[in-house]
Amino acid sequence: MKAVVFDNSGTLISRYRAIKNLNSGIIYDNISSIDLVDEHPHRALVVLQTDPSSCLINARPDQTIHQFIVRNKVPFDISYSSSDVQKDEILPLIKNENAEISDIQDTIHAVSNKNYNVQICSGSGFIVNTRSGDIEFTITAGGKIFPEVSEVVEELKKRSFHIYVASGDRTKSLMELASYIHIPSENVFGTADARRKREIVAGLKERYKVMMVGNSANDILALKEADMGVITTQQDKETSRKVMEAADVVVGNIKEILDIDF
Fold first, then answer.
1. What integer pLDDT is reported at residue 132 of this predicted model?
2. Which residues contact 247 (CB under 8 A, 6 or more apart)?
3. Over 70: is that where the pLDDT of 260 sits?
4. Which residues share a beta bridge with 248?
5. Taking the C-alpha atoms of 37, 242, 27 and 84 in order, what is their torsion angle to the nearest 10 degrees?
6. What is the pTM of this model?
7. Which helix (H) or strand (E) holds 40?
8. Which of 93, 80, 238 is nearest to 168 (CA)?
9. DSSP one-letter code for 257
10. Nearest to 80 by CA among 147, 9, 143
11. Residue 92: is it exposed, middle or buried by C-beta count within 10 angstroms (0-12/13-18/19+)?
12. Is 52 left (phi over 0), alpha (psi -120 to 50) or beta?
């Protein structure tokens, strides 16, 4: 049996990401959150497991992010990190941080203004300096499914492939994606960091020959673990060298994986 494991953001989804630099107040849309984490030896990308378009956007803007998480018992996960940090360390780290919900709301508005859907991408979160406890950036990402995805998934199913998604994105958004492309919800692994993706691929290799399809540094370990590692540059034409070197095959469009001899 054979299986294909897809990353989501940038692989199945054309993403639009708004990132607010809390030091300057400037919102950027041409910066990778993964690259920002990699730029510093002590950073972590934290994804809030709550709906940006209802919960976050309607929250009281002047409360701190820490207050919002604690008061509302909002679950969260570490999507990517440049150091070994555990989830239970995050809240104590940011307890005295002054970053507010309004800083996240600013990025939600930026994404919504571009008409991207925050329901099918990673949602909202922040990048924290795990040494100082400073929240340095807030983030919201929205997405549009690449037009070829449904066709690719259906063709893979016809060929008796089992389809999985392993992504650092918000879990609920991935459940909506699973429904859209008609794969079982149990085949979706949400808010998976690089190590977790590798574990997922390794576990699937006990039953399948596995192809991993991704596009970023968060996929490197899984690409190397898979029987076939595929990088797609459909989102980012200037993919980093270390990501390219982790792959067996590089494609420019997700549809091209159907032509791979696997």
1. 95
2. 223, 229, 230, 231
3. yes
4. none
5. -10
6. 0.75
7. none
8. 80
9. G
10. 9
11. exposed
12. alpha
